[in-house]
């Protein structure tokens, strides 16, 4: 495997792992699409959505080579740690099982444990939206609100991710795995997380322009993803208070402490509600029915 910025050199290989910021993927795709052949397969490592319309990266690449030859890579993959050879898990998702397994073998090592998943939508949306939550987690760090606040914020952020992903047809259980909760923990907690740093700097009073300067040319995908997700949530009628408040801070100049207060002052409700509440009740009913069947079949074990 070779890392290169030379397109002609990269296209010699049949397998291409693409790590381009989300805002530039469409233009990059259009540039290389005429050069792609039937032997090429794409593994997208971009964790973001197109800022202008919220398109997922696999959708963009599928338009060039077809969905069966596209996979996505996501998970708690802090690049500095992987480059240092530290252990980490990751997820390769594709609608085509053979493509997922192919890239699983390609990227997996003794120190990078790769899992496969056929829920491309869920894996991609978890990887993109967790950056929004990470900015808020960084803001909590910057304001010194403590671990309880951060834990609660991350958990409610995960609920938003699940609601949004479920509205797009994703499997809600994907959010409980490596590409969901695992990636969320790493991005919200790591000192190497650019998105967490954005929130911390905003909480310390820096403007968004100054924050971008501090990043030194590096991209925090959460900024563009917030804009795209906020628009999509309104269009779909998905309740996403964290995303909405983050949008107002980033693009409307709302004071970040006021945004946090408004989140705390929201109407109190059930922890699991709406469509996901229905899913939870259905799962509980199925589990109860299975236990009843086991009792009737005499397969339950007596307690010791």
Task: Kindly describe this structure.
This protein is an alpha/beta fold and 304 residues long. The protein has two domains: 108 residues, 3-Layer(aba) Sandwich (Rossmann fold); 149 residues, Orthogonal Bundle (N-(1-d-carboxylethyl)-l-norvaline Dehydrogenase, domain 2). Helix content is 58%, strand content 8%. The chain has a five-stranded mixed beta sheet, sandwiched between helices. Strand 4, helix 5 and strand 5 form a beta-alpha-beta unit.
The number of distinct helices, counting runs of at least 4 residues, comes to: 14
> What is the share of helical residues?
55-70%
From the alpha carbons, calculate the radius of gyration and give it in angstroms: 21 Å
Q: How many distinct beta strands?
A: 5
CATH class of the largest domain: Mainly Alpha
Instruction: Return the CATH topology of the largest domain.
Output: N-(1-d-carboxylethyl)-l-norvaline Dehydrogenase, domain 2
Which structural class fits the helix and strand makeup? Answer: alpha/beta
**Straight-line N-to-C gap:** 54 Å
- Overall shape: it is globular
Identify low-pLDDT runs.
none
From the 3D coordinates, which CATH architecture of the largest domain would you assign? Orthogonal Bundle
What strand line-up does the widest sheet have?
1-2-3-4-5
Q: Biggest sheet, in brief?
A: 5 strands, mixed
Task: Please indicate the percent range of residues in DSSP E strands (runs of 2 or more).
Answer: 5-15%
The CATH H-level homologous superfamily of the largest domain: N-(1-d-carboxylethyl)-l-norvaline Dehydrogenase, domain 2
| Order of helical and strand elements | HEHEHEHEHEHHHHHHHHH
Number of domains: 2
The residue-averaged pLDDT reads 92
